[in-house]
From TrEMBL:
Name recorded for this polypeptide: Cytosol aminopeptidase
Pfam family name, one: Peptidase_M17_N_1
Keywords: Aminopeptidase, Hydrolase, Manganese, Protease
Keyword Ion transport: no
Gene assigned in the entry: pepA_1
An annotated Gene Ontology molecular function: aminopeptidase activity
Family matches, as PANTHER family: LEUCINE AMINOPEPTIDASE-RELATED (PTHR11963), PEPTIDASE B (PTHR11963:SF20)
């Protein structure tokens, strides 16, 4: 962890006084510190930090502004603003668990290519905080962020498979992969079709962990390590962030880490179709008709709607075991961003109980999401004159909904299914996260799974 979260306060720890907007006098600081803050015009604005000295001029502590309506993870900014050393909250924050988590999440920095890490800050967890849980959740988030932030020259299908192997080794999970033409022999034809044009072979990565007989939880993550759009090529501007098109895979691996670290009594399976949607003489084409694992034939209306194709085969495979719950995550549609922006991923499910639990968990742990409808009449938009369905619609409306309806066709036996159309990226710095790859919804999903199966 970049920030050390300790259960006990160090002897020379300095206090952090939390100040709501224009309520400096309620911070609990001494008269001298308050006078210093007033003299320096400190008002408690959101993210504002002011250090104050002791009688000898040495650093004595800091004030930190929460603003009028503080964000749930606002305290994460402290990890990047505080001077090095040991710190503690002068008064307990409203939610000690979220405060502890925010501090750790806010200390993240992606340092693989030379960026400097955040400062060496040691912080005493607020009373009542579960330090072990905060670290466990943050490690899952950091895994997802690291994988997404790594560019495609170092995060192709080979490297993504290796990341799954490293995670499996850490928790004694079994990891295997079906690669290249083996995909055809194992009836995973759409994964093969999408990835066959790339230098690195397409594959299905399969991680399994937990006791046989335990409730089956299956996670499916889109692992398109780079997306050119295929023969329906994207413009240059559309490719700038396509290293993050494996964000679904990164997120389910981060979620799997949380589940295994918590030792949830489940039979976990993680399926990742890992491909690069590249262009060469053997790339799949518009108007091609592919036969899926499930047997449904799919006409290709657009090669840039490749994510749903690889997910479909993986979902069909996972569904064959009739798991208790299947969750798939993918950076799937621009339509989801148009509807809800980058910070609020939509999810789709027919399970009312699961939908309610996910929404409540997202609010409780500051991991927001928004339910969108599997609107049945729109399914007709995916009709094809020559195949069972098309991979896109012709009118361009409700793209996130129709993508979810496409995936739904490949899930039959699972007791519950939910699809998450995530962005996987922070375009702007947040209190608990820098610009870059992001884990979305996985802390909320972890809470739901822990409450259901823990």
């Amino acid at each position: 962890m970049p920030l050390t979260l300790a259960s006990a306060r160090e002897a020379h720890s300095r206090p952090v006084y939390l100040v709501a907007d224009e309520k400096l006098e309620q911070s609990g600081a001494g008269e001298a510190a308050l006078a210093w803050a007033q003299a320096n015009g400190f008002s408690g604005g959101s993210g504002e930090l002011l250090a104050f000295p002791d009688d000898d001029g040495a650093l004595a502590g800091v004030f930190f502004g929460l603003g009028k309506a503080p964000a749930p993870l606002a305290l994460g900014r402290l990890a990047r603003l505080l001077p090095e050393g040991a710190w503690h909250f002068a008064t307990a924050p409203e939610d000690p668990n979220l405060a502890a988590l925010a501090l750790v999440l806010g200390s993240y920095a992606f340092t693989r290519y030379g960026k400097k890490p955040t400062r060496d800050v040691r912080f005493a967890a607020p009373e009542g905080a579960d330090v072990e849980a905060a670290v466990r959740l943050a490690e899952g988030v950091f895994l997802a962020r690291d994988l997404i932030n790594t560019p495609a020259n170092d995060m192709g299908p080979d490297a993504l498979e290796e990341a799954a192997h490293r995670l499996g080794q850490a928790f004694n999970a079994k990891v295997s992969a079906v690669r290249g033409d083996e995909l055809l022999a194992n009836n995973l034809p759409m994964i093969h079709a999408v990835g066959r044009a790339a230098e690195q072979a397409p594959r299905l990565i399969d991680l399994q962990w937990g006791q046989e007989g335990a409730p089956k939880v299956t996670l499916v993550g889109k692992g398109v390590c780079f997306d050119t759009g295929g023969l329906d090529i994207k413009p240059a501007s559309g490719m700038l962030l396509m290293k993050k098109d494996m964000g679904g895979a990164a997120n389910v691996l981060g979620l799997a880490r949380m589940i295994m670290a918590a030792r949830l009594p489940v039979r976990l399976r993680v399926l990742i179709p890992a491909v690069e949607n590249a262009i060469s003489g053997n790339a799949f084409r518009p108007s091609d008709i592919l036969t899926s694992r499930k047997g449904l034939t799919v006409e290709i209306g657009n090669t840039d709607a490749e994510g749903r194709l690889v997910l479909a085969d993986a979902l069909a495979l996972g569904d064959e075991e009739a798991p208790e719950i299947v969750i798939d995550m993918a950076t799937l549609t621009g339509a989801a961003r148009v509807a809800l922006g980058p910070d609020l991923p939509p999810f789709f499910t027919h399970d009312e109980t699961l939908a309610s639990a996910l929404t409540d968990a997202g609010e409780a742990v500051a991991d927001p999401m928004w339910r969108m409808p599997l609107w049945r009449p729109y399914a007709e938009k995916l009709n094809s004159r020559v195949a069972d369905l098309n991979n896109v619609t012709s009118d361009g409306f409700a793209g996130s909904v129709t993508a979810a309806l496409f995936l739904e066709r490949f899930v039959e036996k699972a007791k519950s299914w939910a699809h998450f159309d995530i962005y996987g990226w922070n375009p702007n710095e947040k209190p608990a996260a820098p610009v870059g790859g992001e884990a979305q919804a996985i802390r909320a999903i972890e809470r739901v799974l822990r409450e259901r199966f823990g």
